[in-house]
Amino acid sequence: METIDVFGYVGALIVGLVLGLIGGGGSILTVPLLVYVLGYNPIIATAYSLFVVGSSSLVGTIQKIRSGLADIKIGLAFSFPSFLAVYLSRRYLVPGLPNVFFEFGNISITKEMVIMTFFAIVMLMASLSMIKNKKEDDHPTVKQPYYKTFIQGIAIGTITGIIGAGGGFLYVPALVLWANLPMKKAVGTSLIIITLNSLIGFTGDMQTIDIDWFFLLVFSLFTIIGILFGVFLSKYISGKKLKKGFGWFTLIMAIYIFYKELNTQM
């Protein structure tokens, strides 16, 4: 695939817009867009997603820090264990998975199907945690001890490494529910983690797959334009609305992926 069609350009802008608004969701859009619209293999798509989300999140991170809407200390505390887990997952775990897990009749459960289904399950769990939670965003309590943050970072880093996500749709709920950050600050802080996780994780893929750099750089450029608009718009939307919108958006995308994967076997 040598060029990006109009759907690719529009999709890249939307990916960036979502990242800027809610500090996550870039991979939730990027992976399905690359797989279902542009026709990439899920293994390639999850790798490209790391670069696209990481490079665009870097721009968003700078904007959020300038606005005072990112906690650098907490972001780095989550990032260190996370990027180690992401790198090791992309470098060794994902390439080591069998191409076909098992077969029954005419149905084959492939590596690609398992990754996309796991992606959807994780998204579903994250969405429900944000939709149902009633904690007030603007009244944070005592921060949790670092060892809990370290363990959470390893767990989320491993998951995001497998599914090729920046992890915003996991880190935003974690920062709100576990680190007790207000929603808007959780969004900015998650971008710090996403940037480090994604770009370091992508270096693991560079050693195992061939990269179409022209496609990747052009797609990322449009995503960066989108994230600049998203960061600007986020100033005028309340944290409570962002939290609920984040949850419902993730839920809808999870259902869509389940639907698409079921259709491939029918």
TrEMBL record:
InterPro entries per the UniProt record, alphabetical: TM_pro_TauE-like, TSUP/Inactive_protease-like
Gene Ontology CC: plasma membrane
Residues annotated as transmembrane: 7-37, 43-62, 74-93, 113-131, 151-174, 214-233, 245-262
Domain of life of the native organism: Bacteria
Coiled coil (residue ranges): none
Alphabetic keyword roster: Cell membrane, Membrane, Transmembrane, Transmembrane helix
Pfam families: TauE
Compartmental location: Cell membrane; Membrane
Membrane topology recorded in Swiss-Prot or TrEMBL: Multi-pass membrane protein
Family per record: Belongs to the 4-toluene sulfonate uptake permease (TSUP) (TC 2.A.102) family.
Stated name of the protein: Probable membrane transporter protein
